[in-house]
C-alpha cells in the first residue's frame, strides 16, 4: 500500500495492523479510525458528532481518543463535534478500557470538560502534549 485515501477509505490490513474506517458526521469530510493489532485496539473519533456505528466501532477498544470539543450545554445534533459528556458515554457504553479527551474548544475550561466526561466514564483523562500511551 503506497497511500491511504482518507476521503473514501476502505478497511485494510497493513503489516499486522487492521485499519477500519467510519464516515464522520462533520461539515467537511472526515473519518473515525479503529486500529487493531496483536489483540489490542485503538479508536479515534476524529472530528465528528454522533454517527451511525460510532459505538460499534469503539466497542471493546483498549483506548479511545475522542473529540471532546464541546461542553454538554454547547452540544446539539447539528454541531460538528461531540460533547465531553457524550465522549464519556461512548467509552462507557463501548466497554472501553481508557478514554483520552482531545480537540478541546478554545475558551472551554478543560476541567469542566473532564468532569463532564468523568460523570459517565470516571477514568477519562485530558490529552497532554508529549504524553505517550501504551495500548
**Amount of beta strand:** 25-35%
Strand order across the largest sheet: 1-2-3-4-5-6-7
Total E-strand runs: 7
**Molecular shape:** globular
Structural class: alpha/beta
N-to-C order of helices and strands: EEEEHEHEHE
Output mean pLDDT. 93
| Helicity level | 10-25%
Largest sheet: 7 strands, mixed
Radius of gyration: 14 Å
N-to-C CA distance? 24 Å
Instruction: Return residue spans where pLDDT drops below 50 for at least 5 consecutive residues.
Output: none
Number of helices: 3
Write up this protein.
- This protein is an alpha/beta fold.
- It has three helices and seven strands, in the order ββββαβαβαβ.
- Strand 2 (17-23) and strand 3 form a beta hairpin.
- The radius of gyration is 14 Å and the shape is globular.
- The model has no long low-confidence stretch (mean pLDDT 93).
Per-chain topology:
Blueprint: E1 12-14, E2 17-23, E3 31-37, E4 40-44, H1 54-58, E5 63-67, H2 84-94, E6 98-102, H3 110-118, E7 125-126
Parallel strand pairs: 4-5, 5-6, 6-7
Antiparallel strand pairs: 1-2, 2-3, 3-4
Helix pairs in contact: 2-3
Amino acid at each position: 500500500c503506497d497511500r491511504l485515501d482518507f476521503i473514501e477509505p476502505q478497511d485494510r490490513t497493513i503489516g499486522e495492523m487492521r485499519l477500519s474506517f467510519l464516515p464522520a458526521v462533520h461539515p467537511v469530510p472526515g473519518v473515525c479510525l479503529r486500529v487493531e493489532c496483536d489483540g489490542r485496539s485503538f479508536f479515534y473519533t476524529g472530528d465528528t458528532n454522533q454517527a451511525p456505528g460510532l459505538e460499534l466501532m469503539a466497542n471493546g477498544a483498549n483506548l479511545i481518543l475522542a473529540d471532546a470539543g464541546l461542553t454538554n450545554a454547547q452540544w446539539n445534533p447539528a454541531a460538528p463535534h461531540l460533547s465531553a459528556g457524550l465522549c464519556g458515554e461512548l467509552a462507557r457504553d463501548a466497554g472501553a478500557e481508557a478514554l483520552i479527551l482531545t480537540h478541546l474548544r478554545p475558551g472551554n475550561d478543560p476541567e469542566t470538560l473532564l468532569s463532564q466526561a468523568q460523570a459517565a466514564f470516571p477514568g477519562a483523562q485530558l490529552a497532554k502534549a508529549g504524553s505517550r500511551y501504551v495500548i
